[in-house]
Amino acid sequence: MVEFDPYDWATCVDPYPVYRELRDSAPVYRNEKLHFWALSRYDDVVAAHLDPETYRSSGGVTIEGREAAAPMLIVKDPPEHTWHRKLVNKVFTPRRIATLEPFIRARTAELLDRVQNKDEFDVVTEFSVLLPLDVISELIGIPVELRPEVHDLSNRLSLRGDADDPTNAKEYAEAGLGLLQLYLGLVQERHRTPRDDVITQLMEAEVVDESDGTVRKLGDEEVAMRFMELGFAGHETVALLIPSALIGLHRYPDQRRELVADPSLLPNAVEEFLRWDPPSHLQGRTTSRDVELHGVTVPAGEKVMLLTAAASRDERAYDDPDRVDVHRATKKQLGFGVGPHVCLGAALARLETRIAIEEFLARFPDYGIDESRAVRRVQTNVRGLSELPLLPRSA
Ligand code: HEM
After folding, report:
1. pLDDT at 176
2. Is residue 307 lining ligand 1, measured as CB closer than 6 Å?
3. Which of 188, 313, 317, 380 has its CA 20 to 30 A from that of 332?
4. How many angstroms does the Cα of residue 119 sit away from the middle of ligand 1?
5. Contacts by 185-189 with C-beta closer than 8 Å and gap 24+?
């Protein structure tokens, strides 16, 4: 009988064989020990994501659900979620994201120039963790002198070990509070001196809540919280996708050669990296009613994990799904989630990843990787590497 424990080490290293077993023999899987259900087939995962009435986010989006009480967008349900999301959308327009392209390219070049002549470097700690944090800081308008502190606090918040360990829990709480205070300080400063930036705009933005006709606006702490969430979500995810893409291209050298020869394939390749091995493997929901699926009843009030990473490799949706194919036509992109909670930073993440891989391949078309020395992180909501030794010229 198939067993799916996301904390099992072998499953962390390569969950895809287990995902296949789930799809084939337990499409509505129950883990009694960890108290969750899991959906893994493409059609089921998409349908659940598109049904927020039944699959609620407010019970938390991880197996543990510790984040459920936090005032974050990701754990709100409609109608509250709808107006909160509309407010943020007013500020994070596609036009604003597009203006970041020159900054992203220049910063990428700077970071890669620093490692250009090394015999070996760590692609995560020396590149992929640094870039997204700088980009999000630029987008939010964090003053340059505060960026080292934001880096430090964000790293302490995301690179924690076992969150049940009291030392880690204390460290985590301190880093979270530190970041919130930093953002709150920026909000208060904008009260004194408003600027033409996203902080001021979000403080001033108003929307009509269509569920009751009320005009809604955020308070200072809510604005600070929103930026903290954006910073957090936009930092570690991109940091994990870049090494995953580089591993994909290392394992499929024919695909790498094609990208090196024709960078216009990159936007499609980014979609493929997100399908092949995405940073976010599962999104948790809680059922608001009994659900009947494939002859199994999931009772109301149960935690259900929507395994987007398993769904993206479903043979029922894709031919030869385990292979990286930079020409593949992705159906719905599940790497950013689907439906009302679909990633708010998707356009930015796509832009950053495309530029990062393009600049990287232009400098290191023959790179090698020592996967035996890669260090993997264990968390249920995101999956990826915290270290990946890279050999610039030894493929
Ligand atoms: C490769 C990079 C990224 C990946 C794989 C990713 C993935 C995801 C996924 C799967 C969700 C849906 C969660 C759910 O349904 O419960 C999500 C939501 C979200 N993402 Fe991203 N993300 C990425 C980058 C970013 C960036 C750069 C930002 C910010 C600038 C961001 C901000 C958010 C926010 C705020 C939400 C919550 C949206 C809501 O609940 O309405 N993400 N992301």
Report:
1. 87
2. no
3. 380
4. 35
5. 186/140, 186/141, 186/142, 186/224, 186/227, 187/220, 187/223, 187/224, 188/220
The vertex-126 CA angle with 142 and 134, nearest 5°, equals 15
Find out whether the beta carbon of 238 lies less than 6 Å from any atom of ligand 1. yes
Residue 280 Cα to ligand 1 midpoint, Å, equals 9
pLDDT tens column, 213-236: 999 999 999 999 999 999 888 888
For 207, the enclosing helix (H) or strand (E) is strand 207-208
Query: pLDDT for 79-107, tens place per residue?
Result: 999 999 999 999 989 999 999 999 999 99
Q: Is 246 in the pocket of ligand 1 (CB under 6 A)?
A: no
Residue 237 Cα, ligand 1 centroid: separation in angstroms?
8
Which whole-number Å values give the CA distances from 60 to 56, 144, 229, 261, 339, in the listed order?
A: 8, 34, 15, 44, 17
Q: How many whole angstroms separate alpha carbon 30 and alpha carbon 21?
A: 13
Residue ranges in the chain whose pLDDT is less than 70: 158-167, 380, 394-395
What are the structural domains of the chain? 9-391 (1.10.630.10)
Is 312 close to ligand 1, i.e. is its CB under 6 Å away? no
Residue 146 CB contacts under 8 Å (≥ 6 apart), including other chains:
182
Note the pLDDT of residue 393.
Answer: 78
Give the closest residue (by CA) to ligand 1 atom 7.
Answer: 336
Whole-angstrom Cα Rg for the chain: 21
Q: How far is the CA of 238 from the centre of ligand 1 (A)?
A: 10
pTM of the model: 0.95
